[in-house]
Design goal:
Keywords: Membrane, Transmembrane, Transmembrane helix, Transport. It comes from Vallicoccus soli. It is found in: Membrane. By secondary structure, the protein is of the alpha/beta class. It has 3 domains: 62-400, Na+/H+ antiporter like fold (Up-down Bundle); 426-563 and 692-698, NAD(P)-binding Rossmann-like Domain (Rossmann fold), CATH 3.40.50; 579-683, Zinc/RING finger domain, C3HC4 (zinc finger) (Herpes Virus-1, 2-Layer Sandwich), CATH 3.30.40. A 7-stranded parallel sheet has the order 3-2-1-4-5-6-14, sandwiched between helices. A 5-stranded antiparallel sheet has the order 9-8-10-11-12. It has a two-stranded antiparallel sheet with strand order 7-13. The chain is elongated and about 105 Å long.
Length: 709
């Protein structure tokens, strides 16, 4: 097959596909450099390479299919970000605001065109077309400007949702407006009610399945820990739900949005969002390019006065109707006008509705043969102008003043309900032994921790321990956003290979100024590894071969200067947590001698007692990990509990004047070393050269790298 392909030249689809992607990348790049939103660049790229201009892409069928997938994936991700809870909180604005906007726009358009001599049926049909705004473009603009959670953003979304629902009714009514009165089209009062009832039933079934089927299904797939299978399952859910809703007459866009809402109810919403985003970006770019390809610049030049008039007509009617709808909801004038300007364009689904109307003798604007091309030109021009109209809307909102408390306050969340918007917390990537020990220490000191992990069992355990969890791959920016990485003080990567840690750090550094602490699973002693981590933005590296879990916590706490340190009770023994302890156990004294390694005390007193506010009698130091606990005479007996839980039987007394150690397993008292643990303590120094100005090398005491949690 490969030889045959080489002999016959490149496959037919390759040249137009390469031209499409290259044009989108180049013009999108230029748009961003000129501080213009990429959507405008993608639309212009479509205009340039379209069949009416350079003709680089002539096989539009494949492009249209990819564009449809782009719309589905875009609305799917929006549904994940929004969630059912937030949707229910704006239901009044969907029904009242959206209903008024569609009705007023359709009615005003019909009246204005009737004054110009256009038949009322063509006028109402045009009103339906003009009433629809571009869900894809509006939500993309809101997302890029960070306005999705504002009053204007939520009101816009409410109106867009109603418009998508109204498409169902419009598709059924348009045949009744045609010359044939809907004959043979299955339309009519009974058909209308049947179709609406079927659509409502399908939507209800989808939402019920969201609560009962989707969470356990995603849980089962996630337990495989296979990104390939997980991604395929997510795409299947998205496309499958859109297909089922389309069978009931609901637009595929609304079906995809419902699929996103379904997934948003799952604990794995952030994981889904992170996996689907690369596909969404690619296919949604194709969608915007495909819309631009519909424009014929020759037609625009020849009919410029007509098109300018149509653009002004559409903007005037839609801005007026939408602003009235906003004011009816008791919105401030600035918010109502800002929303109206944002929704002033014509939506992509108007093309679909225009196709239905053409089959029944209806024409946009009453222009007969030129109606469809006039609609395309007006739509594309308004889409290109949308970022400018949106900016004008923000300016109007600011100048006219914003009265708050108009919409119910909704906590701003990322995909899956993560703590986006929080500040001062610590993000921990993964949930292994080191992450568990660190999170326990931080929680005891009142530092909030957000955990990101792909492991369902680890996520459940972290949640059971009281931590907030974002399920997903920490190399994916949406997952980090859901964890609130922008406002985090420290990001800790405690149990990844150096190359994986570097990838996570690079993504973090691209969006956050948080300090990044890495404890890789492999020793990072070689200079090349340190250079790679430093280049990725890592601020501190903790050597896994020569550091304890307590040292990792100490390294993180050093980045949190405002965190209070709990002080032991007056008169209690205080352990020097800056001194290295190495209790050399003779191999013939205890069969567990190999478990004794250099350690750094994890706390100045018993960790558990300090956390609970209790007192202790005497202190014991774990010679395997540096944990400090209280003796058997204390109420908590935390040293013995630690030994049993972690299989670390060797404990040394750190009471003044005591130089003995003990094995909890066989009861052996281990002889004192040549010098007492504290007399033999060494200052912890780093004899390696600092590789960069940004990387601090924390080279501390050791622990067994194969230590069991």
């Amino acid at each position: 097959m490969l030889l045959a392909t080489e002999a016959s030249g490149p496959p037919p689809f390759l040249a137009p596909t390469a031209a499409l992607v290259l044009a989108a990348a180049v013009i999108g790049y230029l748009s961003v450099r000129m501080r213009v939103v990429p959507i405008v660049g993608f639309l212009l790229a479509g205009v340039v390479i379209g069949p009416a201009q350079l003709g680089l892409v002539e096989r539009q069928e494949a492009v249209e299919s990819a564009a449809e997938v782009g719309v589905i994936l875009l609305l799917f991700t929006i549904g994940i970000e929004f969630s059912l809870q937030r949707l229910l909180q704006i239901k009044r604005y969907i029904l009242l605001g959206g209903g008024l906007q569609v009705a007023l726009t359709a009615g005003a358009t019909t009246g204005v065109l009737a004054l110009g001599g256009v038949d009322w049926r063509d006028g109402l049909f045009t009103g339906f077309l003009v009433a629809l705004s571009s869900t894809a473009i509006v939500l993309k603009v809101l997302g890029d400007s960070g306005e999705s959670g504002t009053v204007r953003g939520r009101l816009s979304l409410a109106i867009l949702i109603f418009q998508d629902l109204a498409v169902i009714l419009m598709v059924l009514v348009v045949p009744l407006l045609g010359d044939d009165g809907g004959e043979g089209g299955g339309a009519g009062p009974l058909g209308l009610l049947t179709a609406l009832g079927t659509a409502a039933a399908v939507i209800a079934v989808v939402l019920v399945l969201a609560r009962r089927v989707m969470p356990p299904l995603l849980e089962r797939v996630a337990r495989l820990c296979s990104p390939e299978v997980f991604l395929l399952a997510v795409v299947a859910i998205c496309l499958g739900t859109a297909y089922l809703t389309a069978l009931a007459g609901v637009s595929v866009a609304l079906g995809a949005f419902l699929a996103g809402l379904v997934v948003s109810e799952s604990r794995h919403a952030s994981h889904v969002f992170g996996e689907i985003m690369p596909l969404q970006i690619l296919f949604s770019a194709v969608f915007f390019v495909s819309v631009g390809m519909l424009l014929d610049l020759g037609y625009v030049v020849e009919n410029l006065p007509l098109l300018a008039g149509l653009v002004l007509l559409v903007v005037a009617v839609k801005v007026t109707a939408t602003a009235v709808a906003g004011l009816a909801l008791r919105k401030p004038v600035g918010t109502a006008l800002g929303t109206a300007l944002l929704l002033a364009q014509v939506g992509e689904f108007s093309f679909v509705l225009d196709t239905v109307g053409a089959e029944h003798g209806l024409s946009p604007f009453g222009l007969t043969e030129d109606g469809s091309q006039a609609l395309v030109a007006t739509t594309v021009l308004l889409m290109v102008l949308t970022p400018l109209l949106s900016a004008a809307g923000r300016l109007a909102d600011a100048r006219l003043g914003r009265r708050r408390a108009v919409l119910p306050a909704v906590p701003q969340q990322g995909a899956g309900g993560g703590p986006e918007g929080r500040t001062g917390h610590v993000v921990v990537s993964g949930w292994g032994a080191a992450a568990r020990a660190l999170a326990l220490d931080l929680r005891g000191r009142g530092v909030p921790v957000v955990v990101t992990t792909l492991n369902p069992d680890g996520a459940a355990e972290a949640e059971a321990d009281g931590h907030e969890v974002v399920r997903g791959d920490a190399t994916k920016l949406p997952v980090l956003h859901a964890a609130g990485v922008q406002g985090a003080s420290v990001v800790v990567i405690p149990e990844d290979r150096p190359e994986e840690a570097a990838r996570i750090a690079a993504v973090v550094r691209g969006t956050s100024a948080a300090r990044i602490v890495v404890r890789p699973t492999e020793a990072g002693a070689d200079p090349a590894t340190l250079d790679d981590l430093a280049a990725a933005g890592v601020d501190k590296v903790v050597d896994p071969d020569r550091s304890s879990h307590g040292m990792l916590a100490k390294s993180v706490l050093a980045e949190l200067p405002g965190v209070p340190t709990t002080v032991p009770p007056a008169g209690a023994t205080r352990v020097d947590t800056t001194r290295l302890v190495h209790y050399a156990v003779p191999s013939d004294a205890c069969p567990h001698a190999a478990l004794s390694v250099p350690v750094l005390p994890s706390a100045m007193g018993c960790e558990e007692c300090l956390r609970d506010g209790d007192t202790w009698v005497h202190l014991r130091l774990c010679l395997s990990c540096g944990h400090v606990g209280c003796c058997d005479s204390s109420p908590g007996r935390h040293a013995r509990a630690h030994a049993g839980e972690h299989e670390h039987p060797l404990m040394a007394s750190v009471e003044p004047g005591e130089t003995w150690a003990h094995c909890f397993y066989d009861g052996t008292t281990i002889p004192a070393p040549a010098r007492s643990p504290w007399d033999a303590a060494l200052d912890v120094t780093d004899d390696r050269t600092d590789r960069t100005d940004r990387t601090d090398r924390t080279d501390r005491a050791g622990e067994r790298t194969e230590e069991r949690a």
